[in-house]
Amino acid sequence: MIGCFGLTEPNHGSNPAGMETKARRDANAKVYKLSGTKSWISNSPVADVMIVWARSDRHNNEIMGFILERGMPGLTTPKIEGKLSLRTSITGQIAMDEVPVPEENLLAAIKVWTFITYGKY
């Protein structure tokens, strides 16, 4: 099983303050619908599971983590071709168009700022 971590976005890089990816809760279907694009994600074209960060309407627009699985409707992971460096690393995008993510795939206890803070030390 291969995984990847989707934080970086085309317009804001790895700066979560500018994050545009949205998670809209659909209470009737018991899912979050994710829309947006992550870019320059190592392993995304071959990953079976993905940790993706999005602004959640249910959590006052806070950035929350979600577990996505290959094959979910609306999820594509195109490969980025023609890179000048890191050619041995498969790199791509995670494109989401109203991807239905079950509520149990929300990483409720973990927020993006926690990962960034601990990742520095």
TrEMBL record:
<dbReference type="Pfam" id="PF02770">
    <property type="entry name" value="Acyl-CoA_dh_M"/>
</dbReference>
<keyword id="KW-0274">FAD</keyword>
<dbReference type="InterPro" id="IPR006091">
    <property type="entry name" value="Acyl-CoA_Oxase/DH_mid-dom"/>
</dbReference>
<keyword id="KW-0809">Transit peptide</keyword>
<protein>
    <submittedName>
        <fullName>Acyl-CoA_dh_M domain-containing protein</fullName>
    </submittedName>
</protein>
<keyword id="KW-0496">Mitochondrion</keyword>
<dbReference type="GO" id="GO:0050660">
    <property type="term" value="F:flavin adenine dinucleotide binding"/>
</dbReference>
<feature type="domain" description="Acyl-CoA oxidase/dehydrogenase middle">
    <location>
        <begin position="4"/>
        <end position="99"/>
    </location>
</feature>
<dbReference type="GO" id="GO:0046949">
    <property type="term" value="P:fatty-acyl-CoA biosynthetic process"/>
</dbReference>
<keyword id="KW-0560">Oxidoreductase</keyword>
<dbReference type="GO" id="GO:0033539">
    <property type="term" value="P:fatty acid beta-oxidation using acyl-CoA dehydrogenase"/>
</dbReference>
<feature type="region of interest" description="Disordered">
    <location>
        <begin position="1"/>
        <end position="22"/>
    </location>
</feature>
<dbReference type="InterPro" id="IPR052033">
    <property type="entry name" value="Glutaryl-CoA_DH_mitochondrial"/>
</dbReference>
<dbReference type="GO" id="GO:0005743">
    <property type="term" value="C:mitochondrial inner membrane"/>
</dbReference>
<dbReference type="GO" id="GO:0000062">
    <property type="term" value="F:fatty-acyl-CoA binding"/>
</dbReference>
<dbReference type="GO" id="GO:0004361">
    <property type="term" value="F:glutaryl-CoA dehydrogenase activity"/>
</dbReference>
<keyword id="KW-0285">Flavoprotein</keyword>
<dbReference type="InterPro" id="IPR046373">
    <property type="entry name" value="Acyl-CoA_Oxase/DH_mid-dom_sf"/>
</dbReference>
<dbReference type="InterPro" id="IPR009100">
    <property type="entry name" value="AcylCoA_DH/oxidase_NM_dom_sf"/>
</dbReference>
